[in-house]
Write a structure and sequence with these properties.
This protein is mainly alpha-helical. About 75% of the residues lie in helices and about 0% in strands. The longest helix has 29 residues, at about 220-250. The chain is globular and about 55 Å long.
């Protein structure tokens, strides 16, 4: 796994840990569920690993703070001792891991900050905004122009339906996606489509939710369409990957493409 990480600059690991972080955030804020001390400690460690793996992963701790505050406000400022205890444990583990890493690897985190200055951010924002928006299309099948256009159109429409029908339910995912994109856009360099990999699970979630909405709230034809399309998109996704590997004629190194 770590050899693979080195080939793709850790983006696959960041996707794993950001996805786990979203699950921790959702379960911790839902006080109707039991969230143990061990789970809170693991959550703090997972949040830290996101920032440790890549600079953009620092957004996770901000998503956590904002979502907890909004959950607190939503409950009309009602104090919950269990949630408060878990939040303290998360921050304690996060800070201990941060201090330990900074002692063992001096200037590790300050190197991240050194990339950013006002002029570089403005220049990067102008270039990166359009670049990353256009790169999203690479997550869809692109080995055939017709299938490519169809999969982009269908995938985008169903994703929009999924977002529109579940916007409030998955607010924390929307917040993560916006903050993550914001960090990528203002970063003074672009890493290509692989930098967008942490958003891939969110995109597939909304595609399946959009398909579920069609299958449950529309007439029979669209209901079948909603059931079949996600599996067709996954098929196109896989075909695109195998086609890429076939052209490369090797599987030991993958340096670009949506499946890198």
């Amino acid at each position: 796994l770590f050899d693979y990480k080195n080939e793709i600059n850790a983006d696959i690991l960041l996707m794993l840990f950001t996805t786990l972080s979203m699950l921790f955030i959702k379960n911790m804020a839902d006080t109707s569920k039991t969230f143990t001390l061990l789970q809170a400690a693991l959550a703090g460690l997972t949040f830290f690993l996101c920032a440790f793996i890549k600079a953009a992963g620092v957004v996770i701790i901000f998503v956590f703070v904002i979502y907890v505050i909004l959950s607190f406000i939503k409950r009309r400022m009602t104090f919950n001792s269990r949630l408060f205890r878990n939040v303290i444990i998360v921050f304690a583990v996060y800070l201990v891991a941060l201090i330990f890493t900074n002692n063992k690897l001096p200037n590790f985190f300050s190197d991240y900050v050194s990339y950013y200055n006002f002029q570089a951010i403005i220049r990067a924002a102008v270039l990166n905004f359009a670049s990353y928006i256009l790169l999203v299309k690479n997550f869809f099948y692109n080995s055939n122009d017709v299938l490519y256009a169809i999969s982009v159109l269908i995938g985008s429409l169903i994703l929009i339906i999924g977002v529109a029908s579940n916007f409030r339910k998955y607010f924390y995912l929307n917040l993560f996606s916006l903050l993550f994109l914001f960090i990528l856009i203002i970063t003074p360099y672009s890493g290509g489509v692989r930098y967008l990999l942490p958003l891939l699970p969110v995109a597939f979630l909304y595609i399946f939710l959009g398909a579920e909405y069609l299958s449950q709230h529309t007439f029979k034809t669209l209901s079948f369409f909603g059931t079949a399309v996600p599996f067709l998109l996954i098929f196109c996704f896989c075909v695109n990957d195998f086609n890429y590997l076939g052209k490369q004629n090797k599987t030991d190194k993958i340096n670009n493409g949506a499946f890198s």
